[in-house]
TrEMBL record:
UniProt protein name: Transcriptional regulator, HxlR family
Limits of the HTH hxlR-type domain: 20-118
GO molecular function: DNA binding
Keyword Cell membrane: no
Protein source organism: Chryseobacterium polytrichastri
């Protein structure tokens, strides 16, 4: 794999991300799929296929990439069982479990915001 240039925009951005705690947290949980994957694991361990089946629209490649990244970041624990066929479970780590009340609050905010936007669109359509 190629080595990143230290003065590249990507390297400069990653330095800023590690300096700002909020940006750092959003990067670790942000994107289209990460928070959704974490939410699916809220109630306990799931196998790869169970996660994939519970998230419509995610490709196996994207799920694999995100699972690997979140495991590397310490948000997920991956357990491999020595059996044929191989069995792998994923579960939230303690630090990821601390996010549960935060994403519940974010979910409530999303519900309110969607309702507000929908009401505003209806008002515009009526006028």
């Amino acid at each position: 794999m190629a080595k990143k240039k230290e003065n590249s925009t990507n390297s400069i951005n990653s330095q800023y991300i590690t300096e700002c705690d909020l940006t750092y947290a959003v990067c670790k949980t942000g994107g289209r799929w990460k928070l959704l994957i974490l939410c699916k694991l809220e109630n306990g361990k799931l196998r790869f296929s169970e996660i994939r089946d519970r998230i419509s629209g995610i490709t196996e490649r994207m799920l694999t990439l995100h699972l690997r990244e979140m495991e590397k970041d310490g948000l997920l624990k991956r357990t491999v069982y020595a059996q044929v066929p191989p069995r792998v479970d994923y579960e939230l780590t303690e630090i990821a479990r601390e996010l549960i009340p935060i994403w519940k609050q974010l979910e409530d905010w999303g519900k309110k915001h969607k309702k507000l936007v929908k009401e505003q669109l209806l008002e515009v359509d009526e006028n």
